[in-house]
């Protein structure tokens, strides 16, 4: 969906969204190369309800978040630049190589810039490439190309047990290989994750510093997701959002979709897990009640929002 229709889409989606729904705001920007002034539309607030295995959030806005882009030279302002960096940035933006990338997505171009502006920080360029793949969900061939580029970049960065970002990067690498159908490579990437560094206990004592508790929670989450990812890889599942990797809420809704679509029994094993089954039954009851009252479901509201945004964008 084109971002030009974001405001209309969010106005409709807010009917089904939580209190912290995204809303558009305009911001004045100055291009660091050339000094051009322009208006950039972003969001003042948004909520996140979960994420796919590739890290793309589910939420009340569009992800990845759009970045300011200078209209004249197509510079993607992916971060703030120091005055001493401007000459190098200017040369890169004026180069034939960057000009040839104008048809690529914002995050792909940002990754290209980051790889050259920050050669000592390869993680930034890799994560930007990962987000570039989110931008092209509706273009499978382009997405596959971006995922391969990400996999190559991420594969060159060794996982460091002390660096949580590098561990998440390795997990995303395994997922990218899985989505590409390269299951042996996905398994190898997963095998290189140091599980012992992730198998931690999450402190419940609020006296423990918040940052320490948050890191422990992230490590435990990644540990558990890694075990589930192995199951999905072994099953040869290349879906972008496999049922076995969904949260309870999303899995329950997906299982409800299967029932309403008349899927042949038996349902997938995941649908019979107690918490998922409970959520599935709750979703089915809620949908039945809304239909009886003539009220649209959350899914129908979001579908209408997408159509409205597409109409405005066209």
Q: Would you spell out the secondary-structure blueprint of this structure?
A:
Layout: H1 6-13, E1 24-30, E2 37-43, E3 48-51, E4 57-59, H2 86-94, H3 96-99, H4 106-117, H5 122-134, H6 140-155, H7 164-179, H8 183-191, H9 210-234, H10 248-260, H11 274-292, H12 298-313
Antiparallel strand pairs: 1-2, 3-4
Account of the protein in words:
Among the domains are: 160-240; 246-314, no CATH class. With 314 residues, the chain is mainly alpha-helical. The strands form two sheets. The protein has a two-stranded antiparallel ribbon. 51% of the residues lie in helices and 7% in strands. It has helices spanning 6-13, 86-94, 96-99, 106-117, 122-134, 140-155, 164-179, 183-191, 210-234, 248-260, 274-292, 298-313, and strands at residues 24-30, 37-43, 48-51, 57-59. The chain contains twelve helices and four strands; from the N terminus they run αββββααααααααααα. α4 packs antiparallel against α5 (122-134), α5 runs antiparallel to α6 and α6 (140-155) packs across α7 (164-179).
